[in-house]
Structures are given as structure tokens and as C-alpha cells.
Specification:
alpha+beta, Cation-dependent Mannose-6-phosphate Receptor, Chain A, five-stranded mixed sheet, disordered N terminus, signal
Length: 332
């Protein structure tokens, strides 16, 4: 009994964590009476941002999945962030020629802790609430931790993603998905047109200019990562997509029209039936002075429906039972 009670207590303690895990459903977002579905933007995506500090390059890769946990995608090379996270950062300091990694670490930005503990604390607002000229959503996610390199103190971390309405974009343009990490690694290692065995600048080949990872054609854009006013660290992203438009109906319109047709069909049927009964009852009352069941049009037929159904059912049963019996004369 003690084992059962302890198991029950453990299961009960998981309920709040399970509830917090579903605080953000990207397919069912309601804001100010508008409904949004960001599920097409789900899946694991990556972007990176690089800064040149002296002879070193500080490269931070951001891996995110707004609709689910990262799972195995939270492990980037030898760095581990936590499979229950939704957004992770992987910071690496590389030499200028990308030949070696000086240091690196992983840090969770948003999502649940290990075994589903913690909370995402999602907050969704419409961009028009602050700027009438902008249409879209601002989604705030939290639950991460960032250890400051200098002080080694852990600070709260989160993300602010502005989904900006752009009818001409799906939101997936230019994104590097989890199954295409080799493209990101090739970009980080420096694609200078050589085979990787160049002897520096001795061959007279020019190096490609330094790239900070920005791409104007990409729908998802890195804005900043740094300390906010509340002493927490915030990753700011901008995501242009048609799914953030207030009146976007593609993919939902056909389903609503389909169900709308049958809904109107049922409503019309019941209205016609009600009109027939009301008019027939009024006619019987005024013409014949009918009362009770006699008010209903074809009342005798309606009263006989249960008996007619029983007779029909009895015939069906007798038909199936009679198929196995032998016909003709019986042997004497």
C-alpha cells in the first residue's frame, strides 16, 4: 500500500508539469478574438549569428521548434541543451579560419526543464495593440537559463518572436532544417571555394568576407540576444509569414465551407419539418376542431410507426432464419 501511495503522489505531482507543457498550442492561438494557426511553421529550424572579436569568431547557433520540444535536435555536436526544450542556443568561439574551436557551451532559452518540470509561461499579443500599422503576433516564451561567461551566474532566459504578417511568405523561406545541419556546418567552416587543404593565403586566393549569418531573403531573422531590463536574457526574432495575418483562411476555408453546407442543410430540414407540423396542426384545429394527437398531420400514421417498424424487423429476422430451413416435402 505504501508503494501504491508513493506512486500515486508521484503521478499527481506530474499533473502541473503536464498542464504547463501544453500552455502553448501553436495550432490553436486566440488573441483579441482572432484565431491563428502556426502549425505549418513547426519542425526544427536553425539560424546562426556570428560576431568577430579580434582574431576570433563567436558563433551562436539557435535551434528552435515552436510547436514541440526539440528532442534529439537539442544535442549539437558535443553540446547538450535538454531534449524537453523548444529553443536552445549553442555558443562556440572559433579561430578566424574556422579550423578549431576554442570554447563552447549550450544554453536553454525556452521550454520545460528535464522531465517536464518548470513552465513555458507563454504570452501572446497582437502587434496592432502597439502599432496600428503592423499586423501579426508577438509570442513570448520563457523557461531557459543563461550562464554569464564573466560572472558564471545563471540568469533567466526567454525568447520574443514577432510573427509579422506577410501574405507572400509561408515563413519557411531560407530556413535550415534539422536534417540539413551539414549546410550550416559547411558555412561555419568557411566555404572559400577550396577543398579544405589550402595553405592559407600563400596561394594568393582571397578569403570570403566575414558573414554574420544574416540573410535578407530568409523569413526568420535574428534581431538580438542580450540582457533585458529585468536582468534576464532575451532572444529576439522576427518571423514573416502569412499565417500571422488576421484574416488568413487558406487551409481552413475549405473545411469550414464543407461543414457549413451540411449545417445549413440540417437547419433547413428541421425548419421545413417544423413549418409542416405547425401549419398542419393549425389547419386540423381550425377545420376539424382536433385535439391531442389528432392535431398532428397524418397522426394515425405517426402512431403506427413503432408497430410498422416492429413488423418490418420481424420480417427481416424471419427472412434470415428461414434461409437455413429445407423447403419441399419432408421425408416420411
Amino acid at each position: 500500500m505504501r508503494i501504491l501511495s508513493s506512486a500515486f503522489i508521484s503521478a499527481a505531482s506530474l499533473l502541473p508539469n503536464l498542464a504547463s507543457a501544453v500552455t502553448f498550442d501553436c495550432s490553436q492561438i486566440n488573441a483579441d478574438g482572432y484565431k491563428y494557426n502556426l502549425k505549418p511553421l513547426g519542425g526544427v529550424h536553425e539560424i546562426f549569428h556570428a560576431e568577430q572579436v579580434g582574431d576570433l569568431i563567436v558563433n551562436t547557433t539557435y535551434v528552435l521548434n515552436i510547436c514541440n520540444v526539440l528532442g534529439s535536435a537539442a544535442n549539437f555536436e558535443e553540446y547538450k541543451c535538454g531534449t524537453s526544450r523548444r529553443i536552445c542556443g549553442f555558443n562556440r568561439t572559433l579561430t578566424a579560419d574556422h579550423t578549431s574551436v576554442q570554447s563552447g557551451f549550450a544554453f536553454p532559452i525556452a521550454g520545460l526543464e528535464h522531465m517536464g518540470q518548470g513552465a513555458i509561461d507563454t504570452k501572446v499579443t497582437r502587434l496592432k495593440n502597439e502599432d496600428s500599422d503592423r499586423e501579426g503576433l508577438r509570442v513570448k516564451l520563457s523557461g531557459g537559463k543563461y550562464e554569464e561567461p564573466d560572472t558564471k551566474k545563471k540568469k533567466n532566459a526567454g525568447a520574443v518572436i514577432e510573427f509579422e504578417c506577410d501574405p507572400g511568405r509561408s515563413g519557411l523561406e531560407g530556413l535550415v532544417e534539422e536534417d540539413s545541419k551539414r549546410l550550416l556546418r559547411a558555412r561555419e567552416e568557411g566555404e572559400d571555394g577550396g577543398d579544405g587543404n589550402n595553405e592559407g593565403d600563400g596561394n594568393g586566393e582571397e578569403k570570403e568576407p566575414f558573414s554574420d549569418g544574416s540573410d535578407p531573403d530568409r523569413s526568420l531573422q535574428f534581431k538580438s540576444f542580450g540582457k533585458a531590463d529585468d536582468d534576464s536574457y532575451v532572444l529576439s526574432l522576427n518571423w514573416k509569414t502569412r499565417y500571422a495575418c488576421d484574416h488568413y483562411t487558406e487551409g481552413r476555408g475549405s473545411s469550414s465551407n464543407h461543414w457549413g453546407f451540411f449545417t445549413w442543410l440540417i437547419i433547413i430540414f428541421f425548419l421545413c419539418a417544423a413549418a409542416y407540423l405547425i401549419f398542419g396542426s393549425w389547419l386540423n384545429y381550425n377545420r376539424y376542431g382536433a385535439r391531442g394527437w389528432d392535431l398532428l398531420p397524418h397522426g394515425d400514421t405517426l402512431r403506427d410507426v413503432p408497430y410498422l417498424f416492429q413488423d418490418w424487423l420481424r420480417r427481416v429476422v424471419n427472412t434470415f432464419q428461414g434461409t437455413g430451413s429445407r423447403g419441399g416435402y419432408s421425408a416420411v
